[in-house]
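Page header: ASSEMBLY MODEL / two components / 570 residues total.
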Amino acid sequence: MTNKKIQSGNVILHIVMFFLSLIWLYPYAWLFLASVKPSAEIYTRFLPTRFTLEHFRFILESAERMNRPFIRAFFISLFVSVTVTVCVIITSAIISFALSKYRFKARDGIFNFIIFQMVFPGFMFTIPLYILMRNMHLLNSLAALIVPFIMSGWGIFMMTQSFRGTPNDYIEAAKMDGASDMFIIFRIMLPLNNSVMAIVGLFTFIGVWDNFMWPLIVIQDYYKMPLSVLLASFNHEYGAYIGPVMAGSVIQTLPMVLIFIIFRKAFLQGISMSLK
Amino acid sequence: MSKRIGLAKKEARKGFGISSIYLIYAAIFWGYPFVWLFILLFSKWRFVGSPQFVGFRNITRVLTDPLFWKTVTNVFRFMMYYIPLVLIGALLFAIALNKIKFGKTFVALSFLVANVSSGVAYSIMFSNLFSVNGPVNKALNSLFGITIPWFTSPQWAMFSIALIVIWKFIGYYGLILYAGLTAIPKSLYEAAELDGAGSLTKFFRITLPLLNPSIIMVLVLAITLAFGIFTEPYMITGGGPMRSTLTPMMHMITTAFQRMDPTYAATMAVFVAIISFGMIWVIRKTMEREVDLV
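Prediction written out in full:
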């Protein structure tokens, strides 16, 4: 009898959880449908009566006339995010290799310093970092979005932790065959630790793509803005054009969702790894 | 023998050489701003000329600035809604996920995909969904005959912002708790059942205590998030209505770049960091327990 009770309870639990999952997906579905239905139906119907791409066309064409170059902003965002991600992976790999496989006096000191740095919240440094960018004459340029972020203490921390677990035998064997350090780092260490590489890359990419406050402060020129800031300013001034605003939001969301779906395994691992 | 010492020396030099790349980088992009932070803390400066030393004036100004403390209270109001709801929700989510057999991945991913929404885009999305005559209010109106001024009333606005942040983070926190749940050995529950423990006893005597590290982790993440919140209120309410959703970050940015007062803004940032550190410290001190899982 109790077995039956447990079973029916389990069925109800499944139904409830599936229902909740649909509720959690609903905003995305609504956003996507709103971007492809006629403006008049956005607030009145969930499913559109006809499919239209007019909002996307509006954003791509007349947005240029309104001084809001969306395509350009999309590629700026892509460029900045990819550059920072690649730089972070390369620098983290090289420095983590030194911190995990070379023996030298300051090693533990440097590693502890990196952990110490991670304690400080980023917002403490927003204004001083802005002053640094100003002194370097990098304000209002893409360099201000890239240069301060090409190395990441968190990335080094994660990779060092992971590299430590890789047996030294692999490295010794490669050295016997006359492999250079760079070869060992990029052809042996990174492939052996590809899950941590995926985690660092994924979180860095999403963090940069989604960053809003920093580019809002350092970029004033519409033609240098990443998508997040451009979309915000478009929404601010032309919020009445609901359809195009929705289309812009879809463009801003889509890459993150796609990357999430592709790397979902790394993402799940990353969450449980951040516990350690 | 001497060759070996020579190799070790070479290795040490190389290792330090490579690591010093990071040290140089940190000196420029972390050390230099850190020094500036101290200069800003004790001076008066408006982006031009050289900073003038004013002693503790910035600090006393923060202490007596009602608007700053209003923003801090706003963060606490946000946490009052956010932390209990998101913690209980994430806990229920983790327990349910642990019991589900079919479609586990689908459920986990549907909750997690909310977490990768872009801050700007999801703020726009929700400000339309929850607008006065938006779909949510339409549904509420036809079901219960009520409409709620989600983002337009000072009483509701912060709660509504907490709701959408909960939507975004419940899956993320839930998975952290879920990882903690799966680490609890099944044998503990079996032993408790043999002793005749009910499910409530098992939850309060086994699950909750052993989940302590994960719960603390979620609390720390939630507090850090609450003090740094910027995009949602900036995009949706602009700090209003009646400054009920003005956060310290928004106040800091407007002070620094619209009122051209970076020294005061930096001082506020330090205060906010200290308050959030203090809260995390209190939480750790009062709630953290040593857990030994064999």
